[in-house]
Amino acid sequence: xxxxxxxxxxxxxxxxxxxxxxxxxxxxxxxxxxxxxxxxxxxxxxxxxxxxxxxxxxxxxxxxxxxxxxxxxxxxxxxxxxxxxxxxxxxxxxxxxxxxxxxxxxxxxxxxxxxxxxxxxxxxxxxxxxxxxxxxxxxxxxxxxxxxxxxxxxxxxxxxxxxxxxxxxxxxxxxxxxxxxxxxxxxxxxxxxxxxxxxxxxxxxxxxxxxxxxxxxxxxxxxxxxxxxxxxxxxxxxxxxxxxxxxxxxxxxxxxxxxxxxxxxx
Length: 266
What we know:
This protein is α+β, with helices and mostly antiparallel strands.
């Protein structure tokens, strides 16, 4: 249900630089505290991730619950993102043309490979999934849903995106702490920099166990007419579906479909 706009209280502070902006930022910090691997979070963990005290986090969570953006389990008292978040995502406009044109391409990849196919873009220092089609394999990958974020250094598609960031931004990304999603996530800057150079040279990436153990992925770039990388197409699945010894399966399909998408973009 869409929330009704509330009238502004008499004497309310202007948004510029006031407490209203601070409250919005804190509420967004709470929403961003939820990660793909989280089914639910306790109040203390939400407060820690959002860098807030528990009392402030609790008050903001109460408002987010009223707006349908967060839900609370009455038994465990833990919190999870609500369906209202999907309402917001439904109105997302940036990249709409890219998403629409990619949808049949992703469907073709999923049908040809049986794997889950993804379309990712760089957003706010992370890899954002804006397209996804599940394949025909019995076990499908739930680690990167539409609207979900992954660290740029974890996963085949995200690393393809990271490899093609502008050099100044890439230096900043490598200089910040690198989160480990599994024991196999690359977190050593020098080694990661070499891996990113290999991606640029060969035009694809293979990821093994670094997002979810037991899962592999293959990714390739999508370029605009100027040659700039604007997105990455990738697939993921169980090792036996993605790997042929230490080489990626389905690389030819991904490359062909990436070129098809590039042609459709003009």
